[in-house]
């Protein structure tokens, strides 16, 4: 679960990490009111899950009310790299002399957390890692002990952070690690951590991504899930309990097993189609789950055809077919063509059972994908 | 020769009284796996599908002289179940559970460095030596005895490739599902080492996906240490950056590390052909043999 900047900042502020005064706004009037209350100049920042918001026009500075209105009008409702902007954060603009980076993430190849500090803040940290890796100080953390205080100090000094603020930065890093640890985060980042002329440090941006698999034991964070969702479809997928990712194409994909579903998307592309989504329906194929999956895929207006690919292992193909038929029975009419392919245990029986008045069937994965791509192209033509 | 498990392997099932544990214990027994005990706290003395249940893993291992464990325990308790298994003389633990918090697995990973036990998984379908034994949920009926080794991060994608292989008359020595999580007990190199050392494995299929750099590391290993030919498949060519594609470990970072393209390039550079479709992988294998 990726929290929006404003949500992450709430968490950081609760832990006493300094953040600028800010108010969330969803209309131009709310932006103006917030700006007046905070005091100009303000930054108006789109709250969407993309990097490079600034360059894409999603962050603007306003020195007065007319500028705030103009910025609000530009940003609210804009399409920012495929995301629709519905909320902006109106924030006190920080007068900074320096920008730093602090972050904590899981180093998966080492199997343990790593804390990072760099004096090169305000830019893409992965670019820094690629071009000047020596500019990032890293401390790997023993998961049984947590971060030792000396590690925070060491990272800060080795990153060459100004000695006047070293203590404050180390303290913030320690707090950031505590947040990361206690909230089951995957990433926690402050980039930039701004330094003011008075040697104050303040979190000008905040990233807090939570391990989805840990939400069951993070009830306060789980409540933020709806607000954190990128769009209505993602929120719907959370509700249904599906692994779902929306893409931008017009061939809907439903399958069982993440690797197989990814492969199906890849094949859509291989056969010159454009996948609309990833949806893993998981094991078992009860009618309700099938219906919910079809619902999800059809809810995406971009979808022109669907490929439904199930490999039955322990779940038998004939059971899957019955589930699909029952789900189809709940639709008066399928809004778009659906091509089904069953494989594995009892696949042949399953394919026989499928209601071919309503769906098309293909025997191989390749043929099923090609057929769905054709159907999608017919619709657009 | 089988890699890691065979008819002699004495297996216990942690979580045997649960829905999944019970169902798959029956499936494993039917396949021929030597399931000797179950372990569920508070359920000691019961019997599931003729298998005696113990309160602790230590008790089960001691009384039944077990070598391996399969863990069917829900995510909230699974890491603890793995720790419990690692605290006994078991040779192998196979963790099926999907959804273990990554930070929990970080602790398990540290512990693995301190013991001799091998962990496979979590979030994996398990391991199977066709005709002999299976630990996990792989559907036995699609596998056949033969000379190809398989290592994969995926479940059903693996079954698809195995199905294609078996239909072609190409059987398998052992198939290892290493799982879809970011922190796992056995990685590609671990599995490839085992297959390289196995005289009966004449070719290997390696099935990877986006996220992390395990495939890239494996490519280096293959180039430097393997004579056995390897064919690859990488899922997730069309995955957008920053999105988890089902598996917790299947995510391309914001700046593009862990992409399918990077893995395919690394493998190709190591002389490993990578199929564009599952069927193409099988073609490569057929060519090797």
Helix proportion of chain A: 25-40%
Overall shape of chain B: globular
What percentage of the residues of chain B does DSSP assign to strands (E)?
Answer: 15-25%
**What is the share of helical residues of chain B?**
25-40%
Secondary-structure content class of chain A: alpha+beta
Parts with pLDDT < 50 across at least 5 consecutive residues of chain A: none
Uncertain segments of chain B are none
| Nearest-integer average pLDDT of chain A | 93
Quantity of strands of chain A, as a count: 18
Quaternary structure classification: heterodimer
Calculate Rg of chain B over CA atoms.
Answer: 18 Å
Shape of chain A: elongated
Measured by residues with Cβ under 8 Å of the partner chain's Cβ, the largest interface is: A-B, 55 and 66 residues
Which key terms come to mind for this protein?
heterodimer; A: 381 residues; alpha+beta; six-stranded antiparallel sheet; four-stranded antiparallel sheet; 14 helices; elongated; B: 289 residues; alpha/beta; six-stranded mixed sheet; 9 helices; globular
Give a concise summary:
The complex is a heterodimer of chains A (381) and B (289). Chain A has 381 residues and is an alpha+beta fold.
Report on the structure:
The complex is a heterodimer of chains A (381) and B (289). Chain A is α+β, with helices and mostly antiparallel strands and 381 residues long. Chain A has helices at residues 5-14, 28-38, 65-75, 125-131, 149-158, 163-182, 219-222, 225-228, 232-240, 258-270, 287-299, 317-329, 347-353, 365-380; strands spanning 22-25, 42-46, 59-62, 79-80, 83-84, 88-92, 96-107, 112-118, 136-140, 185-196, 201-203, 207-210, 243-246, 251-255, 277-280, 305-312, 338-344, 360-361. In chain A, the strands form five sheets. In chain A, strands 7, 8, 9, 10, 11 and 12 form a six-stranded antiparallel β-sheet that branches. Chain A has a four-stranded antiparallel β-sheet with strand order 1-6-2-3, covered by helices on one side. A four-stranded parallel β-sheet of chain A has the order 14-16-17-18, sandwiched between helices. In chain A, α9 (232-240) packs antiparallel against α11 (287-299) and α11 crosses α12 (317-329). Chain B is α/β, with parallel strands linked by helices. A seven-stranded mixed β-sheet of chain B has the order 3-4-2-1-5-6-7, with helices on both faces. Chain B is globular, with a radius of gyration of 18 Å. In chain B, 60% of the residues are buried. The chains are: A alpha+beta (381), B alpha/beta (289). At the A-B interface, α4 and α10 of A face α1, α4 and α5 of B.
